[in-house]
Amino acid sequence: ETAIRLAVAVRNYWLVHSHLTEGFGWLKAASETGFDPPPELRFKLLNGLGLAARFRGDFDTARRAYEAGLAAGEEAGDKQGTALSSRGLGLVAMQQGDLAEARRHFDSGLEISRELDDKYGIAMSLSFLGDLARTEHRYVDAMPQFEEAVALFRELQNRTALSDGLNNLGAAKACLGINDEAASHFSEALRSARDLSNRITISCSIDGFAA
User: Fold this and answer.
1) pLDDT digits (tens, 9 = 90+) for 137-182
2) Helix axes 199-210, 179-195, angle to 10 degrees
3) Which of 185, 201, 195 is nearest to 143 (CA)?
4) Do 132 and 106 form a contact (C-beta atoms < 8 A)?
5) Within the chain, where are the H helices?
6) How far apart are CA 30 and CA 2, in angstroms?
7) What is the spatial distance between Cα 182 and Cα 208, in angstroms, rounded to a whole number?
8) What gap in Å lies between CA 72 and CA 199, rounded to an integer?
9) In the chain, which stretches have pLDDT less than 50?
């Protein structure tokens, strides 16, 4: 039980600071202890494992973890957790090229988050729907979704998510040739990501400048 609680408590540290191998190893080990934690703890562990696995490109492990996390969230009656797992499943589907399945999961997550007036969940769902539109080369459709997400992240003062949102918005504008505004978004994202030592987001900002 202690191992699971510790893994859940520090899961975001491993992921934000790019300690993916360490984080994945501990989260996977914690999920295989044979101990059956209460559903409200289980879904956090499984969602963390799903995210770490997805970042490593292990989509089979990610999908199984998110599906089990979705069931645990529903068992716990935690709608926020259910929306989180839905978004995770959408990301796995998108990265594997199943865009229709991705949209279904993202729409489900957005519906739940709007029902709860969960601004962070709304913003994350909009970010992923915008990224899906960008993947389909629908850059004009992506812009308002990214803009709403960025506005919500600013309101919430969530600097990590805001940096990612700015990179997304900058990428959409770069694809439309709005280069001055795109550069401004990448620059703001880069400054914030450096302050937070978030190397994944730093690399995305630099990639945006190169584009």
Assistant:
1) 999 999 999 999 999 999 999 999 999 999 999 999 999 999 999 9
2) 160
3) 185
4) yes
5) 2-16, 20-31, 39-55, 59-76, 79-95, 99-116, 119-135, 139-156, 159-175, 179-195, 199-210
6) 9
7) 8
8) 31
9) none
